[in-house]
Amino acid sequence: MNTNARQQLQHYLRNARYEVLPLRGALEQAQGLPPGTTVTVTSSPSKGTEATLDLAARLRGSGMHVVPHLAARLVRDNAHLDELLARIEALGLTEVFVIAGDADDPAGRFTDALSLLRGMEEIGNRPHRVGITGYPEPHSFISDQMTIQATDEKARYADYIVSQICYDPNTIASWVKTMRARGVTLPVYIGAPGSIDPSKLLRISMKIGLGQSMRFLRKQHGVVGKLLTRYTPENVFDELSPYLVDPDYNIAGCHLFTFNEITKTRQWAMETADRLQEVPA
């Protein structure tokens, strides 16, 4: 890794975004993050939008830069969307992350992230910054063509992209390159699991359909049950380091999926950044 790439990665790790779940104990763990840290709060059908915004408000009160997820399938109509956006603004939040959401049945006319993004434009109420998800690898439940088309269309309404979990750095780099060739120029935050218990990471990987990534790790390390014990986010970022300083790729930073192992993930990020600083030029 050359000096510029090492310094860039160090900067990204020290200023990483942390994704948390609105569950018990999340607020207490997040207190260990320095004020001003970007913390994104997920949304789920079981907890609902209320839990997301409640934790967002508490984190905002602790001095964090908070980005609530807005799940399209939990929003009933334009009036409900306008109400949610007004509440977000009243909380002093200037950024949202728009997702489709995991609800089996949509609450109203918003069935996916694109329809919600269009709804925000229709009502003329848009936060200062809006993020969307990008998929480096084919999804097990969604066709590759659909994810490509959705990314291209969503990009018209967004300010940045966060990549879904992918364990193969070559796939991530290829995805960004291909996206740039299609004319999508939004900054990309590389999404990676933080310092997560391997068994939990395996369950999550299977749930969200990371088939290609799992095959990559199996090829590298063998049996699936053992492969994630060898995974570290450092491997992904180290392999991606040449692209971090390539302006054509426009990589904006790191987005760490903590699954509420916030303390461990923050500790890993800081220790890795310190090690990068100690490497002689």
From TrEMBL:
Keyword Flavoprotein appears in the UniProt entry = yes
**Cofactor requirement:** FAD
Fetch the InterPro entries from UniProt. FAD-linked_oxidoreductase-like (IPR029041), Mehydrof_redctse-like (IPR003171)
The record's catalysed reaction(s) read: (6S)-5-methyl-5,6,7,8-tetrahydrofolate + NAD(+) = (6R)-5,10-methylene-5,6,7,8-tetrahydrofolate + NADH + H(+)
Q: What are the alphabetically sorted keywords of the record?
A: FAD, Flavoprotein, Oxidoreductase
Does the record carry Oxidoreductase as a key word? yes
- GO MF annotation terms: FAD binding; methylenetetrahydrofolate reductase (NADH) activity
Q: Which domain of life is it from?
A: Bacteria
Annotated GO biological process: methionine biosynthetic process; tetrahydrofolate interconversion
Q: Name one GO cellular component term.
A: cytosol
Pathway stated in the Swiss-Prot or TrEMBL entry: One-carbon metabolism; tetrahydrofolate interconversion
Q: Which family does it belong to?
A: Belongs to the methylenetetrahydrofolate reductase family.
The record's listing under PANTHER family reads: METHYLENETETRAHYDROFOLATE REDUCTASE (PTHR45754), METHYLENETETRAHYDROFOLATE REDUCTASE (NADPH) (PTHR45754:SF3)
* Protein's recorded name: Methylenetetrahydrofolate reductase
